[in-house]
Amino acid sequence: MSASSTGKANISLVSAAAMGVGGMMGAGLYTLLGLATVSTGSLLPFAFLAAGFAAAFSVYSYAKLGSKYPSRGGAAEFLLQEFGEGVVSGGLNVFQYVAYLIATALYAAGFAEYMRVVLGGDLPSWAPKAIGAGIVLVFMLVNIVGTKLVGRAETAIIAIEAAILLGFVVLGVGKADFSQVFGGEHTNGALGVITGAALLYVTYQGFGVVTNTSGEMLHPNKELPRAMFSALAIVAVVYLVVSTLVVSLLSVSKMQQDAGHVLADAGEAVLGNVGFLVISGAAILATASAVNATIFAASNIGYDVSQNRQISAAMTRTVWRSAPVSLFVSALVTILFVVFFPLSAVGQMTSLAFLVVYGAVSYGHLRLRAHTGAKAWPLWTAVVLNSALFIALLVEAVRSGSPATWITLVAALIGSFAFEWFYRRRHPAGG
């Protein structure tokens, strides 16, 4: 039952927009900003703009779906509504579960990178992997014991991040050379911006959390789209300002050399070692918070997919302290990604995976638009843009990355549907 039918509104427009900002603006900025410069060079801010523009059409799709089908399941529920129970919705939901695990690995790897530079760059080669795996285990235990305290801390972390970024911008403007945005090295031109936008697309990924609030809004048909687009606009402006300042403070070669912690380098350019440590501290908080939130979301998706009989019912079983098996499986698979893939690889895989999920949701939405009131052209635009960005990033991964990166991602996508098909043949009535 929605708030509109009860006369009560537990979530205001401002609160929903703030939730969207918190869901989007965080670890992705610290982990992927530097990696994107490999493609964009000094044109990095334009890649953030392009990614935000592409995300706007998926936001439109999600807003319409969330208004019509308010659910905590988010995209998982949308896919079921769009394609019905079967191999298509099941395969996509299994793949979405894998996408969240890869995203958790990205944030864990980002946490490890910032810890490495704070502790000293002369750590043994295995240490960052151990740190990344360790933070996943820590938050697995946190989710077993209880997440109330951490949930409350999330709000404080967002406030701290916002204050640090604001201070960084205010202090950095005076030292920035803005001519470097156009005058710096950007040999890949428009193609580099498109490839960079594909990688950075995932930095807007958290907008979907706002759809979970639609059932508690007084007028979700009006308030949900406004909240989602407001959050997107705020985050896009922040990304544009921060990335412009970073490019104006650092050379392209420096950004590419220290791609995993480029924002900390920018902090050092503004306030020396203090700036480096403060930005690194913010990044450590943001990535740790993201690991906690994403592994929680992933385990819930795994639980829901199992409950909907799309994978083994064993995932819904509980073990120690009533923790679902899905939480342990999620942590184990995430650790494998952390151990076997570098930060750049999980970054590419995360963006590729979510481009598939968002594109599929918008394509499936075309089947329901008579019910949701959505127009066809924004949905088709979302499908085309997501497909184009996916192809651009996949080509880049094939061209310059390790073959294991894109082969693993494609195998995960094909394997999700193969698994779902096989599982449904073995369990035609579910179970």
Number of domains: 1
User: What does the radius of gyration come to?
Assistant: 21 Å
The oligomerization state is single chain
Mind summarizing the main beta sheet? none
From the helix content, strand content and strand pairing, which structural class follows?
mainly alpha
pLDDT averaged over residues: 84
Helix content: over 70%
Count of DSSP E strands?
A: 0
Give the gist of this structure:
The protein is an all-alpha fold.
Outline the structure in words.
There is one protein chain. By secondary structure, this protein is mainly α. It has a single domain, classed as Amino acid/polyamine transporter I. It is built from 18 helices and no strands. Helix 5 (75-83) packs across helix 15 (343-365) and helix 6 (87-119) packs antiparallel against helix 13 (262-307). The radius of gyration is 21 Å and the shape is globular. The two termini are 29 Å apart. The mean pLDDT is 84.
